[in-house]
Amino acid sequence: MTKQEKNGWFKKLKKGLAKSSKQLGNSITGLFTKKKLDPATLQDFEDLLIQADLGINTAMRITDQIGAGRFDKGITAAQVREILAREVERVLEPVAQPLEIDAQHKPHVILVVGVNGAGKTTTIGKLAQKFKDEGRTVMLAAGDTFRAAAIDQLKIWGERTGAEVITREIGADAAGLAFDALQQARKKAVDVLMVDTAGRLQNKAGLMAELEKIIRVMKKQDPSAPHSVLLVLDATVGQNALSQVETFKQVAGVTGLIMTKLDGTARGGILVAIADKYGLPIHAIGVGEGIEDLQPFKARQFAQAIAFDHEATA
Question: Could you identify which of 14, 72, 208, 214 might form a hypothetical disulfide with 305, taking C-beta atoms 3.0 to 4.6 angstroms apart as the criterion?
Fold first, then answer.
């Protein structure tokens, strides 16, 4: 990515996180206007950070940093924002890891999981385009066999990206499809195979059994598969994202996260809480519909975008 592209992405990220940063920015401005810092102000701010979905541990660390040696002294809103940005970056830096494709595997199998509506199929399409741009061959498997829309959507992405799409009739066995797709991908020495899956959490037991079966049958061909298990999360669900990570981590052995729809919510802070609690790699984030709106996750960019709203930095 060129410097110009990086600057363009950061602007887009700031705009996408505007709802989250504005909410925090208004709170900071409203609270830290007193001449002296007191425990009540700090407690109010800690509550606001928790309400912004940053998580209890992170909220406590931020307020501890703000309060350290400053009681009965003044602190500006700008100083508070600096501390907020620094602490958020500290939590996120260890988990900001790119999605690596292992060329030793032909194919490198990526199982994509998440609840319906999180943006799995669109994310698969965007990743397929990125892999193609890197010169890799890609195959897609429409493993969400219960939703015709998901299958059709994947076919469209296949046409756009030139990726072969393996499909079956509605209601077909997803594990059988995954097995066949892996067989074909190995035969053709494809670089990357991405397998879409269903996300019907209302029937949690059935969904989890299906995921376990998909993984089991793929291992019959390649004991190391899947090589990546990506959980796609919708930022707009806030705290519910934590329980999704817990559920899919237990069943599918999630290896990394992609968060979508950060531009549609004031709950962008949930990414910080997830990073603090689970420490799973965050590979990419999405702030829009376009292919270029899904980008590798950078801790500093995110921390700056969420701590400094447009009005505060204008």
Answer: 14
Residue 276 domain boundaries: 108-298
Q: Tell whether 192 and 284 lie within a shared domain.
A: yes
| Tokens found for residue 282 | 């965050």
Burial (CB < 10 A; 0-12, 13-18, 19+), residue 162, is exposed
The tens-digit pLDDT sequence of the chain (314 residues) is: 566 566 687 888 888 888 888 888 888 988 887 667 888 889 999 999 999 999 999 999 999 999 888 877 888 889 999 999 999 999 999 999 999 999 999 999 999 999 988 999 999 999 999 999 999 999 999 999 989 999 999 999 999 999 999 999 999 999 999 999 999 999 999 999 999 999 877 667 888 899 999 999 999 999 999 999 999 999 989 899 999 999 999 889 999 999 998 887 778 899 999 999 999 999 999 988 888 889 999 999 999 999 986 444 43
| Residues 45 and 119 placed together within one structural domain of the fold | no
Taking the model in full, what pTM does it have? 0.93
Q: What span, in angstroms and rounded, lies between the C-alpha atoms of 13 and 299?
A: 12
Q: Based on the domain organization, do 90 and 118 belong to the same domain?
A: no
Q: Which amino acid does the sequence have at 35?
A: K
One domain, residues 69 and 125: no
